[in-house]
Amino acid sequence: MADNSKNPATNPATTQVQTTGHVWDDDLQEFNNPLPVWWTYTFYVTMVFALVYWVVYPSWPIGKGFLTGVNTITYKNAEGQDESWHWNTRAKLLKEMQDATLAQKPYFDKLTALPYDKIAKDPELSSFVVSAGKTLFSDNCAPCHQSGGQGKIGFFPNLTDDDWIYGGSYDKINETISNGRHGYMPPFGEALEADQIDDLANYVATLSGLKADAAKAAKGKELFHGQTGACYYCHNNDGKGRKDIGSANLTDKVWLWADVPGAADDAGKVAAIRKTISTGVNKGVMPAWNGRLSEKQIKLLTEYVHELGGGK
Amino acid sequence: MSFKHEIVETNAGVLLVLTMMAISVGGLVEIAPLFFIKDTTEKVDGVRPYTPLESRGRDLYVREGCYLCHSQMIRPFRDEQLRYGHYSLAAESKYDHPFQWGSKRTGPDLARVGGKYSNEWHVQHLLSPRSVVPESVMPNYPWLLETKLDISDVGDRMRALRVVGVPYSANQEEYDRNVKQFGEKVAKTLVIADAQKNLVAQAQEGNYDGDRSSVSEMDALVAYLQVLGTMVDFSKIKPEELVKFR
Q1: pLDDT of amino acid A13
Q2: Contact assessment for residue A261 and residue A208, using Cβ atoms and an 8 Å cutoff
Q3: ipTM confidence
């Protein structure tokens, strides 16, 4: 015998259901079932939720204002007094920022009070500096100085080596971050003849122990220290540069503007130096951060950068 | 005769009309009142229309589809404030037509990118993003530096923006009003008749692309990026005042 219960068209349980009266192919019908009960009740629950939300949170616009809801948020105003306003995301953010500042306060108080060299010796504080500094550095500094502070030749200085254009002391690093920098070297391409620039490039190469044409280097030396080239004005007689104006140390084998490490051979290294002398430098711009970051954050970053490896 | 839901379900025309009425209630109740609530736009100093060069840079921003990956809307959340800076205000995009808030962040938000990096960084980053941010998926835009900026129609573009409410000045009366509102220095950059002159002067002075000999598309785009989010001085505003605009 056929089991009729499996066939909805002939099953007595389903044939009681209201239909729309549409029938196809003898037994194919369109049922008109009511919505499931769980669905209907969920729908009613959302209505109740909407009413509660309406009462608690800002909701409907009314006339020239809107219903603000009964929920409030209390935060501190600029005078340090408690102030309440109806719940909104800006008030919530202000409160959250103030709570977070409060949670970090013991660390930042200690950081502000201690001199730089003591911070590194406090294990708890220095681990705070490393974790908070890493976030600040990644957000703000890494796009130029790269994630590990290794910099980029031709653009942005390496912060992990011993060479500091403007000085690597705590105060100097702080000054650089706060006020920014603008490195400049005039282009000598038009002021000097091509062979004079070549002579100078050979001399500069010898300053950091690179192989160069000795005869040309000798002529370059005269230009460097004489009034024609007058390189010594900024780079000093010993070629070690001046940190107060940010002129490069040419003797330390660390290169930023001339891509000497990237050159394949000695001739290429001299050519890289020649190019920098000829075109000068007008892109050593670091933005000032004192408006964007707070004094405390800059102090923390100073400590972080100093501890990257190269600090003096 | 009692109402039967069946009538709606079996008459497509009635269903359509009733559906549209139900949907438009949402829009009318949620959107329309915003035009009358005075507190929607915060009263803050410093917001001004873009200069001709910045405005052309903005056109390029739209042309290159930057908005597809970058938003310009810092939301009032702690993580966003810590990373990008102060949350965006409605007032800060009041001269944007259309605004560039965006809804997709493949790249970072740019609402406060102005002044964060140097011009050289922007130029290098637009030419070859991975040379400075190794993990970036942003395409290269080498043509920006090679292409001379078309400045022939900058006046017309400002006239069009003036029609929709941006206070670029077309006559002495409007100029005087701008002087009152923005100060003389800014008002001068908003004069439509001087648009080309002002554009070239700003590109020369700012030297955004590192080459003063001509005005490239790079000049315009970097000038635009460098002004984003810099107009309002938040050190002069108490945070709790902005809370009260919501």
Answers
A1: 57
A2: no
A3: 0.87
